[in-house]
Amino acid sequence: WWTCQSSKLQLLHTIKAWFKDPLRSFSNWNSSLSFCQWNGVSCDSLSRVNKIELSGKNLSGSVPKAVFQLQHVETINLSNNQLFGSIPGNLSSCLSLKHLNLSNNNFTGPLPKGSVPFLETYDLSNNMLSGAIPENIGLLS
User: Fold this and answer.
1) Cα 77 from chain centroid?
2) What is the pLDDT of residue 140?
């Protein structure tokens, strides 16, 4: 159990470190609270991170792969920020992911490849993406 909790904590700290946070949305992301009580983080009854909700926080920077390494996350919403660079290409490691919203940012480059078996919504609108649309993108549940 400790190893699992420790790895979640490391992934969350990696996420925090990658973003510039002028509004101090990460101000309570510290060891004085359980990560399930941190701003923008929700957990299920087993203390597994199941939602990252950081929409409209004026975050900037590129998105670290760590965001997509939380095994039980069902929702990731990083919309309405100033995020840039390419979208990490390892979405298929998010086996529980149902909702991904990266809209209204400044992402560039191609769409990530790989299938996400339970994905229901995938919003990448209002970015500067380029390249071919992967064939499997329409295979949403």
Assistant:
1) 6
2) 62
What average pLDDT does this structure show over 83-111? 88
Task: Give just the sign of the alpha carbon dihedral 91, 120, 40, 129.
Answer: positive
Non-local CB neighbours of 109 within 8 Å, separated by 6+ positions = 85, 86, 87, 129, 130, 131
Q: Over the chain, what is the mean pLDDT?
A: 87
pLDDT of residue 4: 39
Global pTM value: 0.90
Rg of the chain over CA atoms, in angstroms? 15
Categorize the per-residue pLDDT at 2 as very low, low, confident or very high, splitting at 50, 70 and 90. very low
Sheet containing 60-62: order of strands: 60-62, 82-85, 106-109, 128-129
How far is it, in rounded angstroms, from Cα 114 to Cα 3? Answer: 28
